[in-house]
Amino acid sequence: MLTPRHQALLMTLAGMTVGVAVFGTVLAINGDLIGNDTPAGIVNNQSTPSTPACTDCLQAGSLQYTLQTFGTSSDPVSAEVPTGWKSTQEGTRPRFVDSTGVWQIRFDTRGSSRSPAEQVESRARSIDERDLKVLSRDNGTLVYTYVDQTRGPRMGLSRWISTDGGKNSAVEITVGGRPKDEAALRAVLEQATKTLQLPTAPNDTRPG
Q1: Alpha carbon distance 155, 135 (integer Å)
Q2: Which of 88, 162, 192, 204 is most buried when burial is the number of CB atoms within 10 A of its CB?
Q3: Burial class of residue 94 in the structure, from the number of CB atoms within 10 Å of its CB (0-12 exposed, 13-18 middle, 19+ buried)
Q4: Residues 154, 71: contact at Cβ < 8 Å?
Q5: Distance (Å, rounded) from C-alpha 107 to C-alpha 112?
Q6: Residue 5: which H helix or E strand, with range?
Q7: Three-state secondary-structure class, residue 185
Q8: pLDDT tens column, 9-67
């Protein structure tokens, strides 16, 4: 028969055994959590890669401009075009093209009795290009894309400017390039519009 002292010793050993088992279980659980989760206080510094910049796009910020005069001696018109773009056609329908032939701006200074809004609708109906998509036709400006057989995807922005409150069109400005050049093409169009200088009455005989 066990004495009270022996019984107390056995109870103590049993308690220690249970404690060790519980402690081991806790360590196992904690070890599993630490192994699978990111420890608290550690920040993941890995960032999402950004989209690479377009290295061959026309860059609006790098463009400089030169004032060009065209039209006729009796009805001269002038506007700023990107510096370095060469004139390939003069007179009342001048065209200026960059050295690669990718980008261009052209003018039609003959004028028209159609309003800018009418010109937009007429041009949208008359463009005969593959995969034509009209993106917008607001405020006398037509923006569209198409696919050229040799040059691939292209974008055009055509604007008609009125000097009589929208009754007639005095000048057309069209900028061409690729869809990925859109921001720069818009900048070229805005610069030409902002710097456009038209003949003053009574010598202006347009529209013709």
Answers
A1: 10
A2: 192
A3: buried
A4: no
A5: 13
A6: helix 4-36
A7: helix
A8: 556 555 555 454 544 554 454 555 445 555 555 555 666 666 667 888 999 999 999 99
Specify the residue for token string 């093209």: 97
Residue 44 Cα distances to 29, 41, 99, 108, 143, angstroms: 24, 10, 47, 58, 44
Question: Which pair of structure tokens corresponds to residue 55?
Answer: 């290295």
Please check whether residue 75 is in contact with residue 199, taking contact to mean a CB–CB distance below 8 angstroms: yes
pTM across the whole model: 0.73
CA distance 92 to 109: 5
Closest by alpha carbon to 96, among 81, 111, 109, 110? 81
